Amino acid sequence: MATTLLDDRRAVTDPAGLSRIPLRPQPITAPLVSIRLRPGDEPLVAPGERVSVGDPLLRRQRHPQVAEQPLRARSASALAPGTRFGEGAELGGPGRRTLRYEGAGEVLYATPSGRLRAVVARHHAVVASPVTGTVRSLDPCALVVHAEGSALPAALAVGEPSHGTLAVAVDGPDAELHANRIDVRHAGAVLVAGSRVDIEGLTRARAMGVRGVIVGGVIGGDVVALRASIERQDASVHASPSFALIVLDGYGKRPVPRWTWDALVAAAGQEVGLGITPPQILLEPGAGLPAVDPLRVRVTAGPLLGRTGRFVRLLARRRRPAGVHLECALIDLDPVTLPGVVEQVEVPLADLERDG
Amino acid sequence: MTSDPHAFFTLDAGAATLAVSLVARVDGRWRLLAADAAPAGTPAEVLLEGLVDQVRAVRPEVLPDPDGWPDWTRVGSRTVPPPRVVVAGPSDRSTEALSRALLADGWNVGASITPERAAALEAAIALRDPGLDLVAVAAPDGLVGHEHDALLDVLALVGATAGLREDLPVLVAGRAGAGRPDLPADRVRRTHGVGDAVAAARDLVGERRGGWSSDGRDAFIRAIASLAAVLDLRVEGVDVGLDAGTRVMAAPDGVMRRLVRADAALVPPEAVDDQRFLDAIARWSPLADDAFAIRDRLRNLRVAPWRDAAGDGARLRLAAARASLERLDAAWHDPARERHHDARGADRLADPVPLAAPDLVVVSGGAFAVPPAPAVALAVVDMLRRPGAMALAFDHARVLAPLGTIESELDRRRMLAELADDILLPLGSAVVAPGLRAGHRGTLRVSADGASTSLPLAPGAVQVVDLPPGLGAAAELESPDDLFVGARARRALFRVTGGLGGLLVDTRDMPLRLPERPERRREYLDTWQRPFWTTAEP
Fold first, then answer.
1. Are the Cβ atoms of B310 and A36 closer than 8 angstroms?
2. Which of these, A106, B368, B467, B515, has the minimum number of CB atoms within 10 Å of its CB?
3. How far apart are the first and last CA of chain B?
4. Which of B43, B303, B308 is closest, CB to CB, to A8?
5. Nearest C-alpha of chain B: how many angstroms from A184?
6. Is the pLDDT of residue B212 over 80?
7. Residues of A in contact with B372 (CB under 8 A)
8. Beta-carbon neighbour count of residue A45 at 10 Å?
9. What whole-number distance in Å separates Cα of residue A118 and Cα of residue A104?
10. pLDDT confidence of residue A134
11. How many CA atoms lie within 13 A of A130 on its CB side?
12. Cα-flanking dihedrals φ and ψ of residue A231, to 5°?
């Protein structure tokens, strides 16, 4: 019989079965930050180059358009796809056969009917590095920076890579950030918004110059509205500073995971970057991360969503609502109201997340 | 595997969960001894050791050397997200057949680049997507006039991008535009037409990725074909995964039709930002939550599919699985799919859709692992609706795909012949017989082991007859009206077998008609499904 192997034969040292509980997304050391390039974008850095937070990485076209010019025989070979040109540049050499586009841009391709198509724009915005690191690769699709610090992975991100000073804007991981708590003092900051921020809060944050919002959960409809708002802003005459929404745990109202909350509180006042691809919070080199307790778990679904506690032991399958049978663990929940009173509950393994 | 193994593991690594099982020789034949599943990312070793411990605790004598389990053979399959392709061509009409062929092979077909659909800038942006695996250009013969000019324009654009992206292979289906110097020769493959384009596309991406990415889904299809041969039955296999849905119909002499669709995944990635897509899934939900909450719960099913599996979460999961089956069924019966251009450019029929109900439907996938078996049986009957009788089974340990990776057909059949009873959990049987008019009553008579029971047959209803697993019975339907059971008849007799869901006798319309008003629709769904869920809370 032929075989196909999925090999990962490591020694097992987990008699308690703790590793059956899903591990929360782990911090990444020296993460990669990718920035997608579009036709017409002009990289301002080269592979191997070192960049710091805020350094310009590329010039991005605003209101790009495709323009075409008749392609005269002599210019053909000099105008390969991908060739970049500045505003008013003469393409294909001087003389009668010169091509000139209104605006700066990039050659797309030559049509079989003898026209040269290029993507051009009169206005540009600069995309700044959200992180300190080294440009690892650059191709027509993406620019990738190898960051020097560490990253906290997130579930999703909306907007553009951004950076700013981290400010905790709510009292706890399960509090909501309301629009009326955001003002001009937060300009240039990245706000930690707790369990939820609505579209009014996000719109106000952008208007006040906030560079990003980190939140536990978001309503899906607000993500759609934020994307539309960003597109409208992009279509306006004036460029606005980059803005990113980082969602740590999923959709709906969801508290910021406790360990991540502690890490963010510890990083308050420091410069942080926000990566979109992949979604992540980028911390400076040397940023301290909270200690990990291997027995600490967090409830990720159901009525106890967001509660934390300590793993006691695995249980056999238990009958749960709707008559389904799921493997569970016994958890000592951290007290919420009465200090010292420990509540013991059975939680399905799949609705738990352990710290490490 | 060693020449004489006494036990081995199967592993099915999906996007959402990892399923493992332990198979060993007991009394001279292969038996499934234990199975488990956990969220993806759980170390396989933990699960495998757990299986060994379970068996050791109950019947230690069947595992002669349990401590040697780390060295036992592992038969595994893995599924990864479907590869992404952009289809380009001179017109929507010319790209349609190529898009459909790639969709039916499990590709995630993204943007369509035609003069009608995409301006040059959008096309260039789509072609520079870092996640793109392939560009497929439809270049059918016989193009004239503006279509020919449009094809040359598309080839120039694709060629310009391919010149910049050394990682992007290009497939050209058809001979039109041959001889143009636009495309880089080392990364372009040209086929005669759509007929051979799918295989060529697999080759191109397989070379890039180090193997065709649909391995687990292909293995499931192979296993269903082998199972049909072993059981000498027409077997239909349906698998709903996080990244794609698979459906295959096989007869004892081979696969009759197969379909892998990325858009038939439990909650496809594109659904997360598409409210209408989410609402189409939510149509099958009996939950009374508001639409915003349901959409967000469906989005979370994409983000962390293993969470929230009890209570309403289980009902919503099954609703999403129902919607996946609905999309699979729509693609299966898509009339536009019937014709495509073959390798010589001739118009011919694609694999015909098998019309008769299969003898056995096997469902697989984590989406069906949590809900009670009767609810799963009803979902299958509702969504893959065909008149007549069929048996229903569940690949509960997700063993079929791993066994499908066994290269030798003989070995695979031998293994399935011995394991079939263990790996196929009997959900029950279903008889779908619409046609009874309102106000009329028929009779259902079920006979087994010399005993017989008669029940009234009502129109537009689902009835469940308790028929335990393993018990064979005769189900006889009599009606004053013509029932549609494959043929029209007032009296029909079927051989059925029992299962956890018993015997389902379904006289509802075909296809199912649901009210458009959300509250009324939820009432209908709840009324039909409530008896199949255990509602008592712990």
1. no
2. B515
3. 44
4. B43
5. 31
6. no
7. 322-324
8. 18
9. 9
10. 98
11. 36
12. -65, -40
- pLDDT per position as a tens digit, B315-368: 999 999 999 999 999 998 876 554 444 444 454 555 556 667 899 999 999 889
For all residues of chain B together, what is the average pLDDT? 89
Domain spanning B84-209 has what CATH number? 3.40.50.2300
Q: Write out chain A residues lying below 8 Å of B165, CB-based.
A: 139-141
Whether B54 contacts chain A with CB within 8 A: no
A251:B535 CB<8 A: no
Cα gap A74→B483, rounded to integer Å: 77
How far is the C-alpha of B88 from the C-alpha of B107, rounded, in Å?
15
| Cβ <8 Å between A351 and B272 | no
User: What is the CB-side half-sphere exposure of residue B145 using CA atoms within 13 A?
Assistant: 2
Instruction: Decide: A266 and A290 in contact? Cβ < 8 Å.
Output: yes
Domain boundaries along the sequence of chain B = 7-77, 84-209, 217-334+355-523
Tokens describing residue A132:
């300190």
B516 Cβ neighbours under 8 A, 6+ residues apart: none
Stronger pLDDT, A159 or B94, i.e. the higher one: A159
- How far is residue B27 from each of residues B30, B34, B61, B423, measured CA to CA in Å? 8, 17, 11, 18
Interchain contact B275–A (C-beta under 8 A): yes
Of B164, B296, B402, the CB nearest to A219: B296
Whether residue B307 and residue A108 make contact (CB cut-off 8 A), yes or no, is no
Residue A71 distance to chain B (closest CA, Å): 14
Cross-chain Cβ contact A324/B128 below 8 Å? no
Residue identified by tokens 């308050």 is: A268
Contact A109 B156 (CB under 8 A): yes
CATH of B7-77, one of 3.40.50.2000, 3.10.129.10, 1.10.510.10, 3.30.420.40: 3.30.420.40
Place of tokens 């950076």: A163
pLDDT at A14: 63
Q: Which residues have CB under 8 Å from B523's CB, separation 6+?
A: none
Nearest CA in chain A to B158: A109
Dihedral sign from CA coordinates of B147, B153, B155, B158: negative
